[in-house]
Amino acid sequence: MSAIVAIVGRPNVGKSTFFNRLIQRREAIVDAVSGVTRDRHYGKSDWNGKEFSLIDTGGYVLGSEDVFEKEIDIQVELAIGEADAIIFMVDVETGVTGMDEDVSKLLRKVNKPVFLAINKVDNAQRAADAVEFYALGLGEYYTLSSINGSGTGELLDALVKVL
Ligand code: GDP
Ligand code: MG
Q1: Which residue of 9, 47, 60, 137 shows the fewest CB atoms closer than 10 Å?
Q2: Which ligand is located closest to the Cα atom of residue 145?
Q3: Domain covering 3-162 in this structure, CATH number
């Protein structure tokens, strides 16, 4: 069985853009957890000859901030339970948000490899802006642009090393 990698993070950071760039075959599976149908997409990918399954976590957004935050927590808990490695994606355009801090708090306790992926780093100025994410306390990070593909190779090199 191939390793499972989950992509988590708040909405609009670019999780699906990254996922779609990597997968060769989308498996349209929706799974029911706690009676709520969650938007989770599964796909297969490989890098440097190592195959892995990728989960793009969507979230079931009901409109209320409370439910919204809870949903992200649930997605993170699911990822912690089932994944062999976690990609935690954040957005350099918006910078660090409260939700990023909450997710970091959960991920700092996890005994699995966590890769902090700072997305939307489309140019050098944005690479400089990315340093503020050290404040999340997750250590080293990877900057990337899911739209133009820069930086994705470095992240994947590090990822497949731990799988
Ligand atoms: P998700 O909600 O985390 O799955 O985010 P999406 O993949 O749906 O992307 C949200 C928005 O961010 C879309 O308009 C994307 O085109 C945009 N986006 C994703 N990746 C990048 C990137 O690397 N650079 C820029 N500038 N925009 C991006
Ligand atoms: Mg998405």
Answers
A1: 137
A2: 1
A3: 3.40.50.300
